[in-house]
């Protein structure tokens, strides 16, 4: 009996160790992705680049590590079925461009933020949350990254900034749009927003 008991304890230790390793691996991956994205904006070699070139470099970094479609699809939610396949593809692309533009423009003229990742918490066998602190121009912000293990690996499925869920915020706006609007009208609105010089957290779809 003791023989089986010890085998059981060893198995539990191996499972726990595997979970801790997965958490640390995802924490390191997220930190390196954030650092590389900031390098694309703040490195000496990027100082002469245009905003569009910086956005392209940031996109390459992010898409090499995470699937942006995951978080965008979650934000669209049930409205996804209200669009044609061509509209779905175009909306995904336009939202990516909008998010990247907002990210780069939001840091324009500001000193490089200091991003520190904190505690990693497993919320289930296939989900985890990674806390982070961002210090930007003397202000401290708290951001929580929510990750889920999928067929394509661990993916970010939501970001909670200062207690506001990005997915919930955009889903609410998109729900409002689709109560009266169409996929074609959403595409027109996204294209219009991309023409704006300034895009920030107050920009509404």
What does this protein structure show overall?
With 205 residues, the protein is of the alpha+beta class. The chain has one domain (2-194): Roll (Nuclear Transport Factor 2, Chain: A), CATH 3.10.450.710. It has 6 helices and 5 strands, in the order ααααβββββαα. The protein has a 5-stranded antiparallel beta sheet. The chain is globular, with a radius of gyration of 20 Å. Pfam families: MlaC. Residues 1-22 form the signal peptide.
Highlighted features:
Nuclear Transport Factor 2, Chain: A, 21% strand, 205 residues, five-stranded antiparallel beta sheet, alpha+beta
Mean pLDDT, all residues: 90
Report the sheet-strand fraction. 15-25%
Let me know the largest β-sheet.
5 strands, antiparallel
Distance, first to last CA: 64 Å
Radius of gyration from the alpha-carbon trace, in angstroms:
20 Å
Number of helices: 6
Topology:
Elements: H1 2-42, H2 51-63, H3 68-76, H4 85-107, E1 114-124, E2 127-136, E3 139-150, E4 153-161, E5 164-165, H5 166-180, H6 183-194
Protein name: ABC transporter substrate-binding protein
Pfam families: MlaC
Keywords: Signal
A few lines on this structure:
Helix 1 runs antiparallel to helix 2 (51-63) and helix 2 (51-63) crosses helix 4 (85-107). The chain has helices at residues 2-42, 51-63, 68-76, 85-107, 166-180, 183-194, and strands at 114-124, 127-136, 139-150, 153-161, 164-165. The chain has 205 residues and is of the alpha+beta class.
């Amino acid at each position: 009996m003791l023989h089986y008991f010890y085998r059981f304890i060893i198995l539990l230790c191996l499972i726990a160790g595997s979970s801790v390793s997965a958490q640390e691996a995802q924490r390191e991956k997220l930190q390196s992705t954030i650092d590389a994205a900031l390098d694309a904006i703040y490195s000496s070699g990027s100082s002469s680049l245009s905003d569009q070139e910086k956005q392209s470099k940031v996109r390459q970094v992010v898409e090499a590590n995470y699937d942006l479609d995951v978080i965008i699809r979650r934000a669209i939610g049930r409205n996804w079925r209200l669009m044609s396949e061509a509209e779905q593809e175009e909306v995904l692309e336009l939202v990516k461009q909008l998010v990247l533009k907002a990210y780069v423009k939001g840091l324009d003229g500001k000193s490089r933020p200091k991003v520190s990742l904190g505690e990693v918490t497993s919320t289930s066998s296939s989900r985890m949350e990674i806390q982070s602190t961002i210090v930007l121009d003397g202000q401290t912000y708290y951001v929580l990254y929510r990750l889920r293990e999928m067929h394509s690996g661990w993916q970010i499925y939501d970001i909670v900034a200062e207690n506001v869920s990005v997915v919930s915020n955009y889903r609410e706006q998109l729900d409002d749009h689709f109560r009266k609007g169409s996929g074609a009208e959403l595409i027109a609105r996204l294209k219009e927003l991309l023409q704006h010089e300034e895009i920030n957290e107050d920009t509404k779809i």
